[in-house]
Design a protein that fits this description.
The protein has 237 residues and is α+β, with helices and mostly antiparallel strands. The chain is 39% helix and 13% strand. The chain is built from nine helices and eight strands. The protein has helices at residues 20-32, 77-85, 127-146, 152-159, 163-170, 174-188, 197-206, 210-213, 231-236, and strands at residues 13-16, 40-43, 55-57, 63-65, 90-92, 98-102, 115-119, 224-226. A hairpin with a 5-residue loop joins strand 3 and strand 4.
Protein backbone atom coordinates (compact mmCIF):
# COMPACT_ATOMS: atom_id res chain seq x y z
CA UNK A 1 0.00 0.00 0.00
CA UNK A 2 1.56 3.33 -1.04
CA UNK A 3 2.37 5.77 1.76
CA UNK A 4 -0.19 8.40 2.43
CA UNK A 5 1.10 11.73 1.06
CA UNK A 6 1.71 14.42 3.63
CA UNK A 7 -0.92 17.14 3.56
CA UNK A 8 0.15 20.31 1.78
CA UNK A 9 0.85 22.98 4.40
CA UNK A 10 -1.29 26.07 4.25
CA UNK A 11 -0.36 29.58 5.31
CA UNK A 12 -2.22 32.75 6.10
CA UNK A 13 0.56 34.88 4.63
CA UNK A 14 3.54 34.18 2.39
CA UNK A 15 6.24 36.86 2.23
CA UNK A 16 8.62 36.78 -0.73
CA UNK A 17 12.10 37.92 0.28
CA UNK A 18 13.79 38.12 3.68
CA UNK A 19 15.25 41.58 3.27
CA UNK A 20 14.41 44.32 5.76
CA UNK A 21 11.08 45.03 4.04
CA UNK A 22 10.03 41.38 3.98
CA UNK A 23 11.11 40.74 7.55
CA UNK A 24 9.34 43.88 8.74
CA UNK A 25 6.16 42.87 6.92
CA UNK A 26 6.23 39.39 8.43
CA UNK A 27 6.93 40.72 11.93
CA UNK A 28 4.18 43.33 11.62
CA UNK A 29 1.69 40.71 10.45
CA UNK A 30 2.61 38.30 13.25
CA UNK A 31 2.20 41.06 15.83
CA UNK A 32 -1.16 42.30 14.56
CA UNK A 33 -2.91 39.16 13.29
CA UNK A 34 -4.96 37.05 15.70
CA UNK A 35 -3.17 33.88 16.93
CA UNK A 36 -5.29 31.69 14.68
CA UNK A 37 -4.03 33.57 11.59
CA UNK A 38 -0.30 33.59 12.29
CA UNK A 39 0.80 30.86 9.91
CA UNK A 40 3.39 32.93 8.09
CA UNK A 41 6.04 31.71 5.65
CA UNK A 42 8.98 33.85 4.55
CA UNK A 43 10.72 32.67 1.36
CA UNK A 44 14.29 33.72 0.62
CA UNK A 45 16.48 32.61 -2.28
CA UNK A 46 19.77 33.35 -0.51
CA UNK A 47 21.25 31.40 2.38
CA UNK A 48 20.91 34.41 4.68
CA UNK A 49 18.45 37.12 5.65
CA UNK A 50 18.95 40.85 5.35
CA UNK A 51 18.82 41.60 1.62
CA UNK A 52 21.00 44.65 1.01
CA UNK A 53 22.43 44.48 4.53
CA UNK A 54 25.53 42.30 4.77
CA UNK A 55 27.89 42.60 7.72
CA UNK A 56 31.04 40.48 7.97
CA UNK A 57 33.18 40.05 11.10
CA UNK A 58 36.72 41.40 11.28
CA UNK A 59 39.73 39.77 12.91
CA UNK A 60 39.54 42.33 15.72
CA UNK A 61 36.00 41.41 16.67
CA UNK A 62 34.22 44.22 14.86
CA UNK A 63 32.08 44.22 11.75
CA UNK A 64 32.35 45.69 8.27
CA UNK A 65 29.21 46.47 6.27
CA UNK A 66 29.48 45.42 2.64
CA UNK A 67 25.94 46.55 1.89
CA UNK A 68 23.77 49.22 3.49
CA UNK A 69 25.92 50.89 6.13
CA UNK A 70 24.28 54.04 7.55
CA UNK A 71 21.01 55.32 8.94
CA UNK A 72 19.88 58.58 10.49
CA UNK A 73 17.30 59.65 13.04
CA UNK A 74 15.72 62.36 10.90
CA UNK A 75 14.10 61.08 7.71
CA UNK A 76 14.67 57.34 8.22
CA UNK A 77 12.29 56.89 11.11
CA UNK A 78 11.35 53.30 10.19
CA UNK A 79 14.82 51.76 10.34
CA UNK A 80 15.78 54.05 13.22
CA UNK A 81 12.72 52.77 15.06
CA UNK A 82 13.89 49.18 14.50
CA UNK A 83 17.30 50.10 15.94
CA UNK A 84 15.74 51.65 19.04
CA UNK A 85 13.34 48.74 19.43
CA UNK A 86 16.20 46.25 19.73
CA UNK A 87 18.47 48.53 21.72
CA UNK A 88 21.04 48.65 18.94
CA UNK A 89 24.18 50.63 19.76
CA UNK A 90 24.57 53.45 17.22
CA UNK A 91 27.81 55.25 16.48
CA UNK A 92 28.10 58.68 14.89
CA UNK A 93 30.07 58.74 11.66
CA UNK A 94 33.49 60.31 12.19
CA UNK A 95 33.30 63.83 10.75
CA UNK A 96 36.71 65.28 11.44
CA UNK A 97 40.32 64.80 10.47
CA UNK A 98 41.26 63.78 6.92
CA UNK A 99 39.36 62.44 3.94
CA UNK A 100 40.87 60.28 1.21
CA UNK A 101 39.39 60.94 -2.20
CA UNK A 102 39.98 58.77 -5.26
CA UNK A 103 40.02 61.03 -8.30
CA UNK A 104 39.68 60.07 -11.94
CA UNK A 105 36.75 59.04 -14.05
CA UNK A 106 35.25 56.42 -11.75
CA UNK A 107 36.17 53.57 -14.08
CA UNK A 108 38.95 52.09 -11.97
CA UNK A 109 41.69 53.09 -14.40
CA UNK A 110 45.06 54.68 -13.77
CA UNK A 111 43.58 58.02 -12.70
CA UNK A 112 41.42 56.33 -10.09
CA UNK A 113 44.39 54.78 -8.33
CA UNK A 114 45.71 58.09 -7.09
CA UNK A 115 44.33 59.22 -3.72
CA UNK A 116 44.01 62.81 -2.55
CA UNK A 117 44.27 63.63 1.14
CA UNK A 118 42.10 66.60 2.12
CA UNK A 119 40.68 67.97 5.34
CA UNK A 120 37.13 66.95 6.18
CA UNK A 121 34.69 69.13 4.28
CA UNK A 122 37.30 70.57 1.92
CA UNK A 123 36.65 70.43 -1.80
CA UNK A 124 38.89 68.43 -4.11
CA UNK A 125 37.39 70.01 -7.22
CA UNK A 126 38.58 72.94 -9.28
CA UNK A 127 36.38 76.06 -9.54
CA UNK A 128 35.12 74.91 -12.94
CA UNK A 129 34.35 71.40 -11.67
CA UNK A 130 32.61 72.83 -8.62
CA UNK A 131 30.43 75.01 -10.85
CA UNK A 132 29.45 72.10 -13.12
CA UNK A 133 28.74 69.81 -10.18
CA UNK A 134 26.64 72.51 -8.53
CA UNK A 135 24.55 72.84 -11.69
CA UNK A 136 24.09 69.06 -11.87
CA UNK A 137 23.08 68.74 -8.20
CA UNK A 138 20.62 71.64 -8.51
CA UNK A 139 19.14 70.03 -11.62
CA UNK A 140 18.67 66.62 -9.96
CA UNK A 141 17.10 68.16 -6.85
CA UNK A 142 14.83 70.36 -8.97
CA UNK A 143 13.64 67.39 -11.03
CA UNK A 144 12.95 65.48 -7.82
CA UNK A 145 10.76 68.27 -6.49
CA UNK A 146 8.79 68.28 -9.75
CA UNK A 147 8.36 64.50 -10.12
CA UNK A 148 4.78 64.39 -8.87
CA UNK A 149 3.73 66.89 -11.56
CA UNK A 150 5.50 65.21 -14.49
CA UNK A 151 3.35 63.91 -17.31
CA UNK A 152 3.33 60.15 -17.99
CA UNK A 153 5.18 60.82 -21.25
CA UNK A 154 7.97 62.70 -19.46
CA UNK A 155 8.24 59.99 -16.83
CA UNK A 156 8.55 57.36 -19.52
CA UNK A 157 11.22 59.41 -21.26
CA UNK A 158 13.29 59.67 -18.07
CA UNK A 159 12.76 55.98 -17.31
CA UNK A 160 13.99 54.98 -20.77
CA UNK A 161 17.36 56.72 -20.50
CA UNK A 162 20.11 55.64 -18.15
CA UNK A 163 21.68 58.17 -15.82
CA UNK A 164 24.98 57.79 -17.65
CA UNK A 165 23.40 58.61 -21.02
CA UNK A 166 21.48 61.50 -19.45
CA UNK A 167 24.67 63.00 -18.05
CA UNK A 168 26.53 62.52 -21.32
CA UNK A 169 23.74 64.35 -23.11
CA UNK A 170 22.99 67.19 -20.67
CA UNK A 171 26.10 67.45 -18.46
CA UNK A 172 29.03 66.28 -20.61
CA UNK A 173 31.68 67.03 -18.02
CA UNK A 174 34.16 64.52 -16.64
CA UNK A 175 33.66 65.44 -12.98
CA UNK A 176 29.86 65.23 -13.28
CA UNK A 177 29.92 61.81 -14.94
CA UNK A 178 32.44 60.42 -12.43
CA UNK A 179 30.37 61.73 -9.51
CA UNK A 180 27.15 60.28 -10.96
CA UNK A 181 28.85 56.90 -11.34
CA UNK A 182 30.07 56.94 -7.76
CA UNK A 183 26.67 58.07 -6.53
CA UNK A 184 24.98 55.10 -8.18
CA UNK A 185 27.52 52.64 -6.84
CA UNK A 186 27.49 54.05 -3.33
CA UNK A 187 23.76 54.65 -2.93
CA UNK A 188 22.24 51.98 -5.15
CA UNK A 189 24.95 49.36 -5.61
CA UNK A 190 24.60 49.42 -9.41
CA UNK A 191 26.19 51.27 -12.30
CA UNK A 192 24.98 54.54 -13.81
CA UNK A 193 24.77 52.65 -17.10
CA UNK A 194 22.14 50.37 -15.48
CA UNK A 195 20.13 52.99 -13.60
CA UNK A 196 17.19 54.78 -15.14
CA UNK A 197 17.30 58.54 -14.64
CA UNK A 198 13.75 58.48 -13.27
CA UNK A 199 14.66 55.92 -10.61
CA UNK A 200 17.81 57.80 -9.59
CA UNK A 201 16.01 61.14 -9.31
CA UNK A 202 13.17 59.58 -7.32
CA UNK A 203 15.59 57.80 -4.97
CA UNK A 204 17.60 60.97 -4.32
CA UNK A 205 14.43 63.00 -3.75
CA UNK A 206 13.02 60.50 -1.25
CA UNK A 207 16.35 60.56 0.58
CA UNK A 208 16.14 64.34 1.05
CA UNK A 209 18.27 65.49 -1.86
CA UNK A 210 21.90 65.11 -2.91
CA UNK A 211 23.35 67.14 -0.03
CA UNK A 212 21.45 65.19 2.63
CA UNK A 213 22.20 61.77 1.13
CA UNK A 214 25.93 62.47 0.92
CA UNK A 215 26.31 64.14 4.32
CA UNK A 216 28.09 62.59 7.33
CA UNK A 217 26.58 65.15 9.70
CA UNK A 218 23.33 65.31 11.68
CA UNK A 219 20.31 64.72 9.40
CA UNK A 220 22.62 63.26 6.74
CA UNK A 221 22.28 59.88 5.10
CA UNK A 222 25.67 58.80 6.48
CA UNK A 223 25.24 60.03 10.05
CA UNK A 224 24.83 56.85 12.15
CA UNK A 225 26.35 53.38 11.96
CA UNK A 226 25.40 50.20 13.81
CA UNK A 227 28.16 48.96 16.13
CA UNK A 228 27.37 45.30 15.40
CA UNK A 229 26.72 45.86 11.70
CA UNK A 230 23.48 46.51 9.82
CA UNK A 231 22.81 42.78 9.48
CA UNK A 232 22.25 42.62 13.24
CA UNK A 233 18.88 44.30 12.85
CA UNK A 234 17.87 41.84 10.13
CA UNK A 235 18.76 38.82 12.24
CA UNK A 236 16.88 40.26 15.23
CA UNK A 237 13.78 40.75 13.10
Amino acid sequence: MPPTPSPTPTYDLIVIGAGLSGLTAATHAYTHLPPSRRRILVLEAKDRVGGKTLSVPTLRGGFVDLGAAWINDTNQEKIYGVAKRFGVELVKQRAEGWDLYGGGDGEGGEEDRGMKKVGFGESVFSPEETKKLGEFVAHIDSMGAELKDLSPAKRKELDNITLQKYCEKHFPHKAVLATAKRGCRGWLGIEASETSTLFFVDYVHRGGGVAILSSDLKDGGQYLRVRKGMSYQSTRL
